[in-house]
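Chain A, query sequence.
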Amino acid sequence: MTALQDYTARLSHFSRNAKLYLLSSLMGSLAFSIYALFFNLYILSLGYSQALVGILAAVPALVTAAVALPTGYLGDRVGHRRTMILGALLVIVAFLGILLFTGVAALILFTGLYGLGTALELVISAPFMAENSGEDERTHLFSAQFALMMGAGLFGSALGGVLPGLMHRAWGVPFGSPLAYRGTLLVAMLLATLALWPLWRLAPPPAGRLVAALRLRLRTPIGKLARLLLPNILIALGAGLLIPFLNVFFRLLFHISDALLGLLFAGGALATAIATLSVPLLALRLGRVRTIVWSQLASIPFMLLMGFAPQLSWAALGYLLRGVLMPMTAPLYSLFIMEHVAAPERATVNGLSAMGWNIAFGLGAWLSGLIQIRWGFGPLFLATTVIYLLGTLLIQLYFPAIEQGESRSEHALDAAQPQQAGGSVPTLRD
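Chain A, predicted structure.
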């Protein structure tokens, strides 16, 4: 069997729950891609400053950070399906509030509610996929889900790029007006509503799978958790400084149109989706840790090209290549964490991971709004580059030792169990 045949065979073996979740993720990602493309520009069209854009980018991340750990406990207690349905409902309400109210307090409130809803969905996603997949296809499921998100980003960005123009022709409103962007965000809300249907159809877990009470203690050692989570927290800080504002960067520095901005972001999503599907093959050849490290290191020159290129074409090239190399190993990182903690703790650990990520991301986004006003985007590209380098070096330092430690523990258990049981018994790998 060729590598491609093996890959497609594993995709066909996904469980019904996994396939329904992928469908919901596709719809939700379409909605998010349109929201992410134009929400910042919508706020600017209302007459607000980049400082408020930074605050509104920080609020969902900080709310997610505040509720991520309780969300992990909630998912362990009441079930992943119910938690994700609640999150989807909150996202829909948040979209509605953002469309109807334009005051600062209301925008902060509803972007916070959006952060709460996405926290309930995203914190649960990794443990849900781990629970609903076997070891043989798990890497492929994580990669397929991320690739679908990127593919949805392609279509969402391309569609979103033309929607303000359609609103202009349909309603006669000026290009770049709040009404044009509000109509675009309405389409995103409708897509978010469609994402709820597959979640309703998920099969509940078998009886006895839910834990009886909240777990306030983890068996995973604190030191190991810190080594698993710290690199991603650093990378989140760098991402928060820059990534939420790339639409503003291209609009203000290169005066790019809505349609061209949509095409650029769609191209980035397409390239990332294709690259992500290759990650399982790369991981087989290079190993998981080396794939993560080399991909992230290779993205850094293109980050600098995007930030300091004098022409739009070169900046766009840097955006596309950085967007391929940096995000494509995200599912591999998430899977690495899930496979190195005990199964009953996965939702809780993913909650800790999301909490750390969003605190750092929110702090970076808040600082970014202030820095943009005083010094522009140049310092942000430099700071993000340095932080990405540091986070990647920590992955190279910590993760091989974690893998080797797990391997030694497993071999010791394999050797000890037959002696204790007086015969051949299944090992943890079985």
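The chain has one domain: 18-201+221-412. Residues 18-201+221-412 form a domain with the Growth Hormone; Chain: A; fold (CATH 1.20.1250.20).
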